[in-house]
Design brief:
heterodimer; A: mainly alpha; elongated; B: alpha+beta; 2 domains; two-stranded antiparallel sheet; 11% strand
Chain lengths: 119, 457
């Protein structure tokens, strides 16, 4: 059980390192890793439900859980920070390219698109 | 003018403009390692073209456009402030934590245990002068341990006051640099396009962000106006408004140039941390230590006063003394009580050991908020440890977020708006997806923690 938790933490830690200097593509590449991490935690929950929590009640497991919780909190803060950053950035770009709406909000950001029609 | 001449003039203008653009590029390359230097882009503007009227067309140089975005810079400065705050707390709490070392054999924890052990030993032979002396000795050790911890906190508090003065000096010095650059902008409008000055200005602002939170507004003449804590003027154009440190020996106050208290506005950077430590964190530790010292002294004194000493009379003096509740820890001491005055017997059984047994039992009796003395002290030590852990975690986190913000700044320069908008939306989608996954992981982790809760708490 502890090994599974360590595996989850390793996957989350990898995402944290990526978030320091990411590209959108790199973040997307991590999503399957996170899906695996979710699966591991689901397995652990099922094990605890079927065998009871007593077997799992030891200091090592609790310590590993706290470490994972801390790692997830750090990743969450990096994501929150980035989301806030890009939201502000989008407002700047939106107002620069589309001006402001009657509500006073910056115009939504739009991207150039090309539609190909064949036939 | 003939069309040939027009073409030549146009070409000559274009050559001149592109030479200027090359100079800008050269300048960028020269300054690639200059801290805070932002790339400059030479804008090219199409000139009117009407050959019949001698208007030659071509391109002319527009104003220099800095790719620096104050928005991006502010993102970095915010993280610098958070990092400065966390680093300061880590450093200062690093001096406090050893004072509360629960594993030490000379600390308060073991001194409390030794005192109650000495009462237990006294109960085995209540009239033995060695046992009586041991009680006084252990009481003295405890008082010394409490005094030592209290004075250690006081020493850190004094250091914090001194550091606060240094940080305030630095803030005023940086404000002076900013005023100096603003003066150059005021004297020469072309100076606002000087990349070197721009780099100096942003270096100054980044240095300031490590010290305190502030906002910057750039005025139309290019001058930077700085508001400390978001509201208090520090720099307005070419005028500086100095701040100062005030308050008492126990509390720090930051004052604006008019003497108004602006302490509550400063909540980031090393100054924010110093204020929080001085006004909140350290007084919290001291208050709990005072509570422990007062409660322990009062409890032991009260129990001793209810017994009889070796001569069969009520003891004429207490074991412990302190000045007042608010400084009980730093003034805790043992009186001039003599060994034979230690009241081991109860009033109902002179010469016995009942009171010594009752005194020993105080060590395992809840005394403060439902905790025994050692538990209460253990909680205080744990709180100091947790505060230190939080500071270290914040430092790691802030360093990560600073790295992230600096990367974001670097990645935003010199990109076309269309490409930038596309990238921005991709990032938003990627972060949204990752954020949802992490949120699910957090929920699941908490569920597992709850399932094994009895151990993890």
């Amino acid at each position: 059980m502890r090994a599974k938790l360590q595996d989850v933490r390793r996957r989350v830690a990898t995402l944290r390192r990526t978030l320091l200097s990411p590209s959108a593509e790199e973040i997307r590449l991590h999503l399957p890793e996170l899906m695996e991490a979710v699966q591991r935690l689901d397995d652990i929950q099922n094990e605890l439900r079927s065998h009871g929590a007593r077997d799992a009640q030891n200091g090592d497991l609790a310590q590993e859980l706290q470490a994972l919780k801390k790692e997830l909190r750090m990743v969450q803060r990096l994501i929150d920070h980035s989301v806030a950053f890009y939201q502000g950035w989008a407002k700047l770009f939106g107002s620069a390219t589309g001006g402001y709406m009657s509500s006073g909000e910056a115009a939504p950001l739009t991207t150039p698109a090309v539609v190909w029609m064949q036939g | 003018m003939s069309s040939l001449t027009s073409t030549l003039v146009s070409t000559a203008n274009a050559m001149q403009v592109f030479t200027q653009a090359l100079n800008v590029v050269g300048n960028n390359i020269d300054n690639v390692n200059t801290p805070e230097y932002a790339d400059q882009n030479q804008s090219l503007v199409a000139a009117p073209f009407a050959p019949a009227e001698g208007i030659t067309g071509g391109v002319i140089a527009g104003p220099l456009l800095s790719s620096r975005s104050e928005y991006l810079e502010q993102a970095v400065r915010t993280q610098q402030g958070a990092l400065g705050d966390a680093q300061q707390r880590t450093t200062d709490l690093g001096q406090i934590q050893p004072l509360f070392d629960l594993t030490s054999t000379t600390g308060i924890d073991s001194a409390i245990n030794n005192l109650f052990d000495s009462f237990s030993q006294l109960s085995t032979s209540p009239n033995d002068s060695i046992n009586q002396q041991a009680v006084i000795t252990q009481a003295g050790n405890l008082a010394q341990a409490v005094d030592s911890t209290a004075s250690g906190i006081d020493q850190v508090s004094t250091n914090i006051t001194s550091q606060t003065g240094s940080v305030i000096d630095n803030i005023n010095q940086i404000a002076s640099q900013i005023v100096g650059i603003n003066q150059q902008y005021a004297a020469d409008s072309q100076a606002t396009q000087d990349a070197g000055l721009d780099a100096q200005m942003h270096t100054a602002l980044e240095n300031l962000s490590q010290l305190a939170n502030f906002t910057v507004l750039k005025s139309s003449d290019g001058a930077y106006n700085v508001y400390l804590g978001g509201q208090t003027l520090l720099v307005l154009g070419t005028s500086q408004f100095t701040v100062s440190a005030g308050g008492s020996s126990n509390q720090t106050a930051i004052l604006d140039s008019q003497g108004n208290d602006i302490t509550s506005e400063i909540n980031q950077g090393s100054l924010g941390a110093l204020i929080q430590e001085k006004n909140t964190i350290l007084p919290g530790y001291t208050t709990q230590l005072n509570t422990l010292a007062k409660s322990l002294a009062d409890t032991v004194n009260t129990q001793l006063s209810q017994g009889l000493d070796q001569s069969g009379t009520a003891p004429p003096v207490n074991l412990f003394t302190y000045d007042q509740a608010s400084d009980a820890a730093s003034t805790l001491a043992v009186t001039n009580i003599t060994p034979s005055q230690i009241a081991a017997a109860s009033a109902s059984a002179p010469g016995g050991n009942s009171n010594a047994i009752a005194l020993a039992a105080l060590g395992t009796t809840p005394a403060i908020n439902g905790f025994t003395f050692t538990q209460y002290y253990g909680n205080l030590g744990a709180q100091v440890g947790n505060d230190m852990d939080d500071a270290q975690a914040d430092q790691t986190q802030s360093q990560d977020q600073l790295t992230q913000a600096e990367t974001q700044v670097a990645s935003q320069s010199g990109v076309s708006i269309n490409a930038e908008a596309t990238k921005l939306l991709e990032f938003q989608q990627a972060y949204e997806a990752a954020g949802k996954m992490v949120s699910v992981l957090q929920d699941m982790t908490q569920t597992v923690i709850d399932m094994v809760q009895p151990v993890s708490t």
